[in-house]
Amino acid sequence: MVRVGDVELCIETFGSPADPTVLLVHGSCASMLWWPRALCEQLAARGRHVVRYDSRDTGRSTSFPVGEPPYGLRDLADDAVGLLDALRIDVAHVVGRSTGGAVALVAALDHPGRVASLTLIGCTTGDDDLPPMSPAFLD
């Protein structure tokens, strides 16, 4: 468990902290276990320091009463960057899936110097002014 602001986040790391860090951000209705251990171990074996974590209200991290959560997307993004701070990681390759992609995107926009690269999986920007996902990807 790592304290980040007013929450505790359950984390798991793989590989050496001296290697470039990959921060894995899961989607809603999932936990850090969505990122398979075998994937994390393979990335670590290829010279990456992998960090996966349960976001607030997920897994063993701090949870809140059922209902309207007292936090939003920006808080989740700040948690991701706060986790890097707590682990003394200056910059990370951030990978986000689904809602985790939106979290990763906000983290990159708000803290561009902390994100070495951004990989978004199965997510949208939520911006109606941008074109929608190609129907070919839905087949």
Automatic annotation (TrEMBL):
Signal sequence range: none
One annotated GO molecular function: triacylglycerol lipase activity
A Pfam family of this chain: Abhydrolase_1
Ranges of residues in domain AB hydrolase-1: 20-123
One Gene Ontology biological process: glycerolipid catabolic process
InterPro entries associated with the record: AB_hydrolase, AB_hydrolase_1, AB_hydrolase_fold
Domain of life: Eukaryota
Record's protein name: Uncharacterized protein LOC110428893
Species the sequence originates in: Herrania umbratica
Gene name in the database record: LOC110428893
